[in-house]
Records
---
Amino acid sequence: MSDKLKTAYFFIKIKVGEIINLLVKTATAYVVAGFAVLQVASIVVENVSTQEIFGLSSESLMQILLVLIPSGLPIALLLAYMSKSKKLNTVPIDESDTAEFKSKNYKQKVGVVPFENLNDDSDGEFLVDGIVEDLITELSMIKEISVATRKTCFELKGTSYTAEGLMHQLGLDYLVSGSIRAVQDKLRISVELSDTAENNVIWSNKYDRIKTDVFDIQDEIVTKIINSMIGEIELNSLKRAHRKSTENMTSYECTLRGRALNQKFEKNANAEAIKMLDAAIEADKTNPLPYSWKACTIGQALTLGFLERTDDVMANFGEALSKANELNDNDWNANRILAEAHLTFHDYLKTKVYATKAYNANPNNPHVLSIYGNALLRTGEIEKGIKILEKMYELEPVVLADSNSDRQLAALFFAHYLNNDFEKCREIFEKISEPDLRTWLLFSDILLKEGSEINGESWFGAGLEKFREVDWAIEIDRFHLNDPDAQKEFLQLSERLVAA
């Protein structure tokens, strides 16, 4: 079985698992409700005359209920299935659409620099960094502001910086800093918000609480920051029911450790991350976050070659992703991964469904912006997709695992190619250090259509040497084009270029 078929198989298992889980929950709820109806009915028939009200004896009424309630179960299951299927195929409304594309208002930008670790042991650093990363994520969920990415913020760790310098270097309007001390089950967090233009502290606070209050503290900090930046607004993204975090501190801390190891992009760290996330799941099987980060970590391992794409690995990946989606279908990370998978299958409607959900949950995350922009490109909203990808590039030109901006620029190049803006493609191509296969082929196509000579170009020769032996049918399939004719044309072009 090919890798693509294996992946498809396990995602079919995810979908089947979701349907089975839905039907089990529906059946359970129906049985409980039916039992309650029978209980109430038995009390009612003892105290009122059913003959006068319904024209039936109490025995006849109970017999009818005993027949109707079980026979209604298949109907309830069918309705639940139809409702779920419709939901899975309905693209959510982009909650940021009006603010993002119709308003010209400037979005103020905030950065959260790593907090000072006041613990005696360096082992407590993972907790400090994890809480800071959670604050970045919570702020990223708010569409009314712009947020510096985790990579940008954590690159400042151990460096000297000034508020004014960050204003000019990163375009920050506000800066969040602080310190954290954790002693046994106690937690002390000091935090302050500064205006970078004036270098004034406009809000600060200290929290002396127990560790299990960490989510409430995060909520209050984020709310105070937003109120100080743009005034009071309704922050739906901070509702605990929407975020569905755990109350189990062992699960929370193991999740933070696993997430930190995931972001090292190293083989040993990746393996340790999976172990730590398994420990988080074991501590609280209802916590959705370690499941989504486990799926993300396995996906990273497969992409970087840390793991082979075996049936067991894919099953582990699928189960983690399915459980994350089951426990919280608003989880931005799980929805992002689901969107990426459906893009691979060329199911562009589902790609957009999951990508939009991820974007609504976290509109400032570069990885979410990447898949959302790509979903828009494949569903005909090219100009909007370009704006999303431009925002992605603005927030994080160089992604965490890369050493240059080629990957992000290649995504923008492709978007402008689809928009037939070849002049913009030329401009972007000049900034790319080493063109990937898609960019190399598309730029060759642009120049050939213009009648330009490319054989003497160094970039063309280097690409020809590098890509001559690839399986072009597979590589062009990975362009995920929503146009079979264009796919055939690119395959023919690649054959001509390689044969020349």
---
Amino acid sequence: MKRIATLVSSILFALGSTQTVAQQLDDDSQISPPSIGTDIPVTYFGPPPSSVEPELIGPLQLLTAGEIDFDAGTITLPLYEGRLKETGESVWYVITDTTDADVAKALGINHAAKLAFADNLRAVRIAETSFDGTLLFHWGSVDFSPERSVVPGNSTDSDAPAFPPSSFQPGAVGDELYSPLVKITTAGEHIYNAPMIAFGTSAEDLDFCDSTPDYSLVHDKVVNICPEEGTVTLELTSGFSFAKPVFYLSTDANNELPAALEGAIFAPGLRDVAVGADDSLFSAVERIFGFINGPTNTVENQVNPQRQGFFSALSGEGGPLNVLGGIPTVATDYSPLWDLNLGEWTQEAVDKNYVSRLTEEFQILGLVERGFITGPGGARYGSTGNIINCPIVHRFL
């Protein structure tokens, strides 16, 4: 029992916490200085090309509405208080994306034109602004009181936890009408990505400016929340997009398992967003690629530079290092709604020592085409039906 408790603790740390860049990306995956291998110091080099043109190589903060702490792996964003129109209950939320390009530029949030195609049934809530600017939500609530848990599944190897977990519980559960997406009728009917941070709670009860918050009241990604200052600090997750290391923010998922793994809200409303169409006409989603049996650390207390996947994450070695599709400045098809494609390396790939860290979409698809990666258990590769709301925050390269 003690081993299981330790495993659960390490799993929740690995999957839902990012204390440092090194813990998530590993030292070998961070961007090395250009002075390595030269006879001059790093101070002799000019600024990264991305400071001149965002599309060029180099670091770039994409969600500029907040301040990133790279050592802690967090972002501090503006915290907004709205109301549920019918009951007057407080709705605490952040804004990360919108279909309105001008507002996105003005507020420093991501422009996600594809969210317009998500407007179907429960997937997009309705809201309106009151005379003082307060957002009034027509429906949707979240219960933040459940305690998040993930217990590894049974394994033939007693030292390795198995995927999927044998039991799991998201730390926050939305009602049947909850979705983070909101169409504001008084703002051109544009759609905003407005993940909830707390619900039905007063500012006084959320006063955790300098202390650990009460997670029965707030989102599991919250590090600090300070209504008096109008800010909330949230944990970020590390991954890759077209071989570029990135930070993103996991806030919601349409099913309980990814919600528990990601430390996100279970948002039933997102089940009304179509999956499996990726970049096609009228698709609201982009693909995110995860791996069941990627490389793990082979020597205790030593980081394998190829480490990746859910076996590794369930062993407490760090996050799964998922691979995202198109993000702004890299592609034109960005959406914060990521359609999970879950891959499993085949026995042939394992036997031939092909299993390695993957960082780029078409690299993955090529291995699928050649038969080295399949869906779980040898199934056809493709959408799992799981959507994770993961706004992009920063591009390291």
